[in-house]
Design goal:
537 residues, alpha/beta, Serine Threonine Protein Phosphatase 5, Tetratricopeptide repeat, 40% helix
């Protein structure tokens, strides 16, 4: 217990919480559900009534550049300034990077930092062939485009009274910011996110799930789907590097972290249970475990799939990625409405590190984004702070409540110990001596994993079997069955493995790997029959 207490204490961060008074909420007055989502968000986050704005916008996901400018961008800036939330002034910017000194009119004082776009506000801005601008000569031809996500275009709203190049991406000067306070309109950025998805109900629930995770903790497992690319792949290796970096951060945060580095994405047969964090790439449409009728997203779950068109639409439950992930229960995600090119997609490793450093979702999303006026959309409550409560306070709270989530808190502390070099035998003893472990499938599975790591396969098999009797989640049950079968085969316990696989099919008749398991059973039964035949005199 003393070991756990040390990790609880040393991980306690200094907390500074953002509030609803830092937010403006925007809805589409042409869509009744949009206002309903806005009002719900404002009520949950205590946003002042004078910071909720409705605009008459197109009901399509896409709007023209003129519509964006005249119906949303300029009217929003006017309302924010007119409400005393922003103060503009002319300032002189010093000469930098070969550029001469210049005078610009920008936000110099701000009472807000965030903008929440509600279901019904258009997602993207169509290309405008009438825009002709002089672009930097170093740019490649593929950047000579002016379409953009509404989110990314509004992110530079504090600079709306300056000359701003609409063609191509604009470098985000706050990319990689290690001080969250710098992400402020006075530094040229508005932290824009949207409550959106395939339905207004899904959109509205995003803030509820965020608040639940802030209150009770973000728990579950972390899954990372890299592609196993070589460093010599200069076009795409960056994506793998970011995802693998995020996996290491999750491990150090104390999450059970599963990493796949095969070229293919996770198959539907992969038992993805109790998802807290997911990051992967590179399928065009939602695939694998996320196509199943039930996906085990935990409250507050963050899910991200890197693809050029992951958010081309967010109204669909089957097309692209963002819409389907939200429909299946994710609380926060990011995506691209059009081709961004990989360097201008979110750096998911920095994003997760920023969250670990107690950034809000909105702060982390834009600090991890190298470009503004480009293709990224950020979906979820920007005030969501998944790691806002210290492990010390959260663990004490769960203890007082005798919460069923306590098993996850102990699991995280155990994994933190392992990540910081604690001996496996010591962690095994700590979990084994917890009374809670007796009735916890989560802790019992971990106990079996640790037993296996200690070189005690027979004991591990017995403990995996014990976990199966403790009402695991459907996907955890499948994983336990698959693991148990694998470990039995390693010990040449073939008949027992066959029984285990048969139990898997009986318990999970819709398992996507059904045919593969049947083939395995048939192969093993032939092996048993051959062994029996050879043993006859």
């Amino acid at each position: 217990m003393r070991f756990f207490a040390i990790f609880i204490f040393t991980l306690a961060p200094f907390l500074v919480h953002a509030g609803g008074d830092e937010v403006v909420v925007i809805y589409n007055s042409q869509v009744p559900e949009s206002k309903t989502v806005a009002e719900h968000y404002a009520q949950v986050r205590n946003v002042p009534a004078n910071q909720i704005f409705g605009f008459a916008l197109t009901t399509d996901e896409q709007m023209s550049r003129a519509e964006f400018r005249d119906s949303l961008q300029l009217p929003l800036a006017k309302k924010i300034e007119g409400g005393g939330l922003w103060q503009f002034a002319t300032v002189v910017e010093a000469a930098t990077n070969g550029q001469p000194e210049r005078s610009v009119r920008k936000v110099v004082a701000s009472k807000i930092r965030y903008a929440v776009l509600c279901y019904g506000v258009p997602l993207k801005i169509a290309p405008d062939p009438d825009i002709h601008e002089t672009v930097p000569k170093i740019w490649r031809p593929e950047f000579f485009r002016n379409e953009a996500s509404v989110d990314s275009e509004l992110a530079w709203l504090p600079l709306v009274k300056t000359d701003f190049l609409l063609t191509g991406p604009s470098f985000n000067r706050l990319y990689g910011a290690t001080n969250a306070a710098l992400l402020n309109p006075t530094n040229g950025i508005l932290l824009v996110a949207r409550l959106d998805g395939p339905s207004a109900q899904i959109a509205s629930r995003l803030v509820d799930k965020a608040v639940e995770a802030e209150r009770d903790g973000l728990w579950g497992r972390a899954y990372f789907d890299a592609r196993g690319l070589d460093k010599t792949d200069t076009n795409y290796f960056l994506g793998d590097a970011w995802i693998l970096g995020a996996a290491e951060i999750a491990r150090r945060l104390g999450f059970e972290s599963i990493v796949d580095d095969k070229p293919e994405t996770f198959p539907a047969s992969f038992p993805m249970s109790q998802i807290a964090i997911y990051a992967g790439w590179y399928d065009g449409n939602v695939s694998g475990p996320f196509t199943l009728p039930k996906v085990e997203f935990m409250p507050g779950a963050i899910a991200y799939h890197l693809h050029s068109f992951s958010a081309s639409t967010i109204r669909s439950t089957t097309e692209n990625w963002c819409g389907p992930l939200l429909a299946k229960g994710a609380t926060a995600t990011m995506g691209c409405v059009n081709e961004p090119y990989i360097a201008f997609t979110p750096n998911i490793a920095f994003f997760l590190q920023a969250l670990a450093n107690d950034y809000t979702f909105g702060e982390a999303a834009w600090a991890a984004q190298s470009a503004l006026s480009w293709q990224t959309t950020v979906i979820g409550d920007p005030l969501y702070r998944p790691f806002g409560k210290s492990p010390q306070l959260l663990h004490a709270q769960l203890l007082r409540q005798d919460s069923p989530l306590l098993e996850w808190s102990y699991l995280r502390l155990a994994d933190l110990g392992l990540a910081h070099g604690a001996p496996v035998a010591e962690i095994f003893g700590l979990i084994d001596n917890l009374n809670l472990t007796t009735n916890s499938p989560v802790l019992t599975e971990k106990l079996a994993d640790l037993c296996e790591a200690l070189g005690k396969p027979s004991s591990a098999i017995e403990i995996y079997g014990r976990a199966l009797k403790l009402n695991p989640s459907p996907q955890q049950r499948i994983r336990l069955r698959l693991t148990l079968g694998e470990k039995m085969l390693e010990q040449s316990r073939i008949a027992e493995a066959v029984d285990d696989y048969k139990q898997l099919l009986a318990e999970s008749p819709d398992y996507p790997g059904h045919d593969s398991i049947l083939n395995t059973i048939a192969s093993l039964q032939k092996k048993i029959a051959g062994t029996n035949a050879a043993a006859k005199p």
